[in-house]
Amino acid sequence: MRFRLLCALAVILLGLSVEGCISQNVRDASESTVKPASKRNPAPDFEVKDSNGQTFHLADYKGKVVLLNFWATWCGPCKIEIPWFMDFERNYKDHGFAVVGISLDDDGWEVVKPFVASRKMNYRVALGSMQIERLYGGGDGIQSVPTSFIIDREGKVADVHVGLVSKSDYQNELEELLR
What we know:
The chain is an alpha/beta fold. The chain has six helices and eight strands, in the order ααββββαβαβαββα.
């Protein structure tokens, strides 16, 4: 519930179109926002079941670049990002890349499974918990959706995005880490 309120409040306060939201976060393509390897912290591991009922650990992805996305079905900016993430999964999966979506919907699988099916999401989706939120968002958990963590092949956080950023920002960072 708090995420809906925060998202709605942000949209009202900003009063911006999608293009306006993106333009505030667009960076020069030559400007790397990925932290130097020496300054990256390990991404906290967690165990969770995905939408197919299979248990996995984030640590299972070590050796891959991972886009870990905290999202919700009711979140407008999340709905914009999902097709981008599907493209990334399709285009980079054979290069050691994976998207993992962690839904923070209060209504759980009841709303998430139909959403995933209707959009034909091609990447792994799981439900978040307060434990996972605290691992990534501190004591109060993740405060805003979307929030995405870009994790390098060693399992370390290379960058964090809170809110909507451009597809090209993600793409530039992923390509840098996949090289």
